[in-house]
Amino acid sequence: MALLGVKMVLDTLKQALDKVKGVQVKSYGQLCSIARALDVVGDRWTLLIVRELLIGGALRFGEVQRGLPGIATNLLTQRLRDLETNGVVAREPAPGTPGTPTYRLTERGRALDGVLRELLKWGAPTVPDAPSDAIFQMHWLSQPARFLLADHRPDEPPILIRFGTFDDGFDLTAADGTITVDPCQRDVSPLAGVTGPGPVLVALLQGAMPLPAAIAQGVDVTGDAAALTRVLPAPQASTNVPGQYT
After folding, report:
1. 3-state class of 102 per DSSP?
2. Nearest alpha-carbon partner for 214 in 231, 202, 223
3. Which terminal residue of the chain, N or C, has fewer Cβ atoms less than 10 Å from its own Cβ?
């Protein structure tokens, strides 16, 4: 009977542990704006969800998930729900698709753009040390491109360069001394197209590798390759060039 009693106690404890397994404290409970911000966006995957919505605008659930390889469906659902509750994300019907919602950043959510920009700067020196099997998606490069590239020939007519494809890419426009990036546009023809290995493209945009060396290492440029020289930074001596983010 004693053994039966012990077993019952252990079973009860196991059930209690199962209930709380994976449950996180949702607040640091601190009167500090940093802690309060992390209460909202400090969970794993949350800022990467914000990254996807900054890049893509209004996205369906599956579109967000494609940009977050490795995230579980139920976890993404929970993170989007939390962001919606905290006024960072808004959910609304998809145009022409009844019952299918899209997710977009609210004004408060878009204000996180500056936070991600600082993370780009802080993380730039670590990129060359990423594991060799690190996943790369071309559209992720659109955010560094906004800050690393510049229009060095502003008096020339506007140009559009496409990095990647419609399924995974972005359009970069240089015009009147400014650089803008947008999701790939089907109604425009780019002057040049760029594809290639992630690490080489990162080095190219950071100014750590000249264009001829990048092409020799697998970067493919179609169309007017000279268009790239209008926007690329001058090659640096090192891949550790976070100061290039201006």
Report:
1. strand
2. 202
3. N
